[in-house]
Structures are given as C-alpha cells and as structure tokens.
Amino acid sequence: VCWCGRCAWAGTVEAVTRRPSSPASPVPPAGTLPPPIHAGEPAFRATRLALFAGGFSTFWLLYWVQPLMPMLAHDFGLSPASSSAALSFATGAMALALLPASLLADRYGRRTLMCGGLLAAALLTLVMAVAPDWHGLLALRLLCGLLLAGMPAVAMAYLAEEFDPAALGSVMGLYIGGNALGGMSGRLVGVWLADALSWRMAAVAVGLVGLAGAVYFLRRLPPSRRFVPRPLPFSAEGRASLAAGLREALGDRGLLALYATSFLIMGAFVSLYNYLGFRLAGAPFFLSHSVIGFIFMLYMVGTLASALSGRLSRRFGRGPVLRTMLGVMAASLLLTLTDALVLVVAGVAGLTFSFFAGHAVASSWVGARAQSAKALAAALYLSAYYLGSSLVGSSSGLLWSWGQWTGVAGVLVVAVLLALAATWRLSDKG
C-alpha cells in the first residue's frame, strides 16, 4: 500500500462500491443505507484509531525480518539471496492474495477478513520463535503474507463505504501513517532485540505487539453499516464484468508501463535494504547489527518525499517528476558503491526519497488513467508492487556471490533504468 497519503487509492476504491450487482444480491437504493460517518461523530475517532492500529500492526508484522537477514544467514547457513526469502515469501504471498482477498471481502464482509487475518498473522509470528528449521520458518512467513493481504486489500474499500467523502482524507492519512510507522518500527525493534537477545526472542516481542494491535483493532473498529454483500464472480454476469475490467486494465499501454515501474522500483528499493546490511557488516565498515538498524530511520525521508510529490506533479507534470525521481534512484545507487560511509548513507537517503516520491506519482497516475476499472487497476498495480519486492528482492541477491554489493547494485541500476525506459514516452495527457 502507498504510504504517502496523497495518492489516488482513496478515489480508486470507490469503484469497489459501484460494481454491478447480481440479481440475487441487489444493492439497496442509497437512501436506505445508514448515513456515512462524519467528522466529529463518536465513531469517527474510534475508527481512525482502529485503522491506525491495524495499519501499524500489518507492516510491523510484515517487515520486521528484513534487517535480520545477516543473522538468519549465519544461524541457518544460508547465502544472502536465500536469507531474503524470509521477506520475499511473505510479500509474494501477499501480492498473489490481494485480488482473492478483495473478492472474499465483497462476499463475507470487510471487518471479518481484516480482523481475522491480523489476529492469525500475529499468532503465527509468535509460533516463529519455535520454528524447528529454515523451511518451517518460511512456511510460517508465507502464511503470514496470505493472511496480512486482507488489510491492504480491504481497508480502503471499508473506508470508502463507511465514511463521508469530506472526512475520508483524514482517516486515510492516519491509516497510511500507521503503515509507515509500523514498517519502520518493526525493523528497528526487531534488529535491536535480535542483536541484544536473539531473533527468536525478537519474534516473540514482535508477535506480542502485533497481537495487542490486532486485539485493539478488533475491539475498536465499528461494524460495517453500509456494506452490501456481493456474490463471488462465478456467475456469467460476474465473469463478464471481471473480463471487461481486465481488458481495460491490461489493454492500456500506459497502465502496463506503470505496473512495470511499480514492480521494478519496489524491487530495487527492497533489494537495497535487504542486502545493505551484509555490506555494512563487512569490510571496510564492520558495523554492528544495531547500528545498521539506524539506517532504517531514513524511511522518515519518504514521508517528506510523498508530501512533496503532489506539489511537484501539479507544477511540472507527472511524467517529468517520475522520470526525474527514477534518475535520482539510479544516481543514488551509484553512491552506495563508494567506501565512504557518509556517501553510502547519502545514497540510501537519496534512493529512499526518490522511491517514495516516484511511487506516489506512479500510483496516483494509475487512478487518473484508469476509467471504469479503477479498483482493478489499483489492485494490479499493488500486486506488481509486492511481486517486485518478492521476486527482484530475492533474485538480485544471487549477484552477491558473483560481485557482492557491486553486483547487486549493478543489477538494481539496470532495473531502475528499465523503469525509466518504460515511462519515457508516458504523457499526462495520454
């Protein structure tokens, strides 16, 4: 999910609430539904805090393993590429589960899927502390990714249905803020606890905090008042509607370029943080895992980038801003090849800034280009995003055995340049 709070996801999910209904499950006229939640109502504050807790817990449980990869590689006798599977299995499973999760939520309810998935993922994280071997740990991480898909797939549809449009931006911003804070905090707390105790004790702490967040989310999130169940798309009408949406979402070359960009830049971004710890722990830096963990605080740079991207796009256009940010990503990767720690950190900061800004522009562009298939286009973009994290995040590590960080950074520069080529002729007008 985008963390910037300024993308078009809030608008794209409105299409979810306007899908053609089945005669077996007619959508009631708008006047028969309860009124949406408005700012200032008792349910407004409760829902905002609940969604913040849910967003925080989701990314806390998803990303805590990323800085622990050098430890996992040591404990299980793995290569850097193999150790990255601890994250890639979860993000890959999430990517594949996003669309099925959204369809299940249309049938069985938003709140049920979000609460159940979050609680189960927290409990599985606790079980990871006693995982007997590497394959057992990977199986648990894969299941976590499948379960956590319910939150990003459903949260925005829940908000679009339940909230007055004038109040939606405030709640969406807090939810996305919870995503960012949870992702960063999970990485920091996980690596500090693992360095002081062990990665198994870190799993216990992460699981307990995730469980507390899930329980709070369950107790505070109001039941859906405006949700109308929709049949699963197994009927002729449902299949025809889905096929039409896919033709639109996959038939636009501009959208395909944006999906490819999402895949490539997310893959480059995750790969940087996956393998940078191996570089900084070795010569000539020899940093401890706890000190390396501070690098993840550079995620806060992404908040500034996301906020600025909207202003820059309005002033200069989406195309020029996106291509500029891709160029900055490539240049920042080259900085990380130096042996000066200050330049490496500057490169990480530059790539983090340009990634978040570029992702904010690309994701909002999907909503602007898609016509009637906005929700489906958004889901495809998000699936490409997490698939990039999984596939590129793991495969780029194979270059470590060939050229260590030089090999990894080289393939990431190629990935960013491919994204630049894909968007080179994209225009805001078509």
Q: What are the key terms here?
A:
disordered N terminus, mainly alpha, 18 helices, single chain, globular, 430 residues
- Contiguous low-pLDDT stretches (5 residues minimum) are 1-30
Cα separation of the termini: 25 Å
Q: What percent of residues adopt helix (DSSP H or I)?
A: over 70%
Number of strands: 0
Principal-axis shape: globular
Q: What letter string, H or E per element, gives the SSE order?
A: HHHHHHHHHHHHHHHHHH
Average pLDDT confidence is: 84
Strand content: under 5%
Computed Rg: 21 Å
What's the main sheet like? none
- The computed structural class is mainly alpha
Q: What does the model show?
A:
The structure is a single chain. With 430 residues, the protein is mainly alpha-helical. Helices cover 75% and strands 0% of the residues. The longest helix has 32 residues, at 165-196.
Compact description:
With 430 residues, the protein is mainly α. It has 18 helices and no strands.
